[in-house]
């Protein structure tokens, strides 16, 4: 269940603040919300339309502010709800041509928008930057969503850390970052050898150690929130990985994105100290209700 802080948010919210939540994160489905006071985007829709609606309602987030879907790759845990959601709300779906071919969607062609590497898509005041990542899919991409000087990265399903990833990670005030597996748990677990190799072989997923190395080496001093994402059900432990990152946090708030439910909504700002102090939302604040469309 999501929760809210008893603190009141700042009386005046910056127009470039971003509101973020993970609606679900894991091999059973992925969906991430990033928006400002006027518009929002969803990165992937790997849970059903109904579940997306239910979880956003619990968070007092309005689907009316969602203006587009961005699809990272064709694996089912990222696309399950796309067609129903896009049809119901007439949302444009930004997707590469190769990913679209491999999804075999029953999707209205009028809703399809071509996505290409290093493209920058403007959605109102939001800018969504797509860049290629290493993963065992046709044309996999990561995303950075920006509003003014505030940047949020969605960095999951990563076989390895590459130069593109470190370049964008350094810019972010917040990031959804994959920490899929503990190396010892994976090697000692019951997965067949081919699946273990698929996960750790350089085109699958990032381990806790790899994610922590990226965090320690390349984070911005303004990184106020890190949402550890796409944790394995069998090869990781949420409490363990949170404790691992908390030991290196140095002021960054560490959140583990659940495989079963939404996180709280977090406020992210280029003004880092304020965003840390008011990291979760008090929905009774009238100004905040107006911003989120409650």
List keywords for this structure.
disordered N terminus, Metallo-beta-lactamase, Chain A, seven-stranded mixed sheet, 294 residues, globular, single chain, 27% helix, alpha/beta
User: What is the beta-strand fraction?
Assistant: 15-25%
Query: Which regions have little confidence, pLDDT < 50, spanning 5+ residues?
Result: 1-12, 273-280
Q: Briefly note the CATH topology name.
A: Metallo-beta-lactamase, Chain A
| Measured distance between first and last alpha carbons | 19 Å
By CATH reckoning, the class would read: Alpha Beta
List how many beta strands DSSP finds.
Answer: 14
* CATH H-level homologous superfamily name: Ribonuclease Z/Hydroxyacylglutathione hydrolase-like
Number of domains: 1
Could you say which structural class the secondary elements and strand pairing correspond to? alpha/beta
Sequence of strands across the biggest β-sheet: 6-5-4-3-2-1-14
Shape: globular
Work out the helix count: 10
What summary fits the major beta sheet? 7 strands, mixed
SSE blueprint:
Blueprint: E1 18-24, E2 31-35, E3 40-43, H1 49-58, E4 66-70, H2 82-89, E5 93-95, H3 97-103, E6 112-114, E7 120-123, E8 126-132, E9 141-147, E10 150-155, H4 163-169, E11 174-178, H5 183-188, H6 193-200, H7 208-218, E12 225-229, H8 238-246, E13 253-256, E14 266-268, H9 272-277, H10 286-292
Parallel strand pairs: 3-4, 4-5, 5-6, 10-11, 11-12, 12-13
Antiparallel strand pairs: 1-2, 1-14, 2-3, 7-8, 8-9, 9-10
């Amino acid at each position: 269940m999501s929760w809210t802080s008893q603190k009141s948010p700042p009386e005046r919210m910056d127009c470039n603040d971003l509101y973020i939540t993970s609606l679900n994160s894991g091999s059973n489905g992925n969906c991430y919300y990033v928006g400002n006071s006027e518009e929002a985007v969803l990165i992937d829709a790997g849970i059903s339309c109904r579940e997306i609606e239910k979880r956003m309602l619990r968070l007092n987030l309005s689907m009316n502010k969602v203006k587009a879907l961005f699809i990272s790759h064709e694996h089912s845990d990222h696309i399950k709800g796309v067609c129903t959601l896009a049809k119901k709300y007439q949302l444009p779906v930004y997707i590469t041509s190769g990913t679209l071919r491999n999804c075999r969607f029953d999707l209205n062609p009028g809703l399809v928008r071509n996505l290409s590497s290093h493209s920058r898509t403007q959605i109102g005041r939001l800018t969504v930057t797509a860049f290629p990542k290493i993963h065992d899919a046709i044309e996999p991409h990561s995303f950075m969503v920006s509003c003014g000087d505030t940047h949020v990265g969605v960095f999951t399903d990563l076989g390895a850390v590459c130069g593109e990833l470190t370049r964008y990670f350094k810019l972010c005030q917040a990031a959804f970052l994959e920490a899929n597996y503990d190396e010892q748990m994976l090697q000692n677990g019951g997965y067949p050898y081919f699946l273990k190799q698929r996960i750790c072989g350089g085109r699958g997923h990032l381990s806790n150690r790899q994610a922590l190395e990226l965090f320690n080496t390349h984070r911005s001093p303004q990184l106020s929130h890190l949402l550890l994402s796409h944790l394995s059900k069998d090869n990781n432990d949420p409490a363990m990985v949170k404790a691992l990152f908390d030991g290196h946090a140095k002021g960054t708030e560490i959140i583990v994105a659940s495989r079963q439910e939404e996180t709280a909504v977090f406020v992210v700002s280029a003004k880092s100290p304020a965003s840390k102090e008011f990291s979760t939302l008090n929905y009774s604040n009238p100004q905040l209700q107006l911003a989120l469309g409650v």
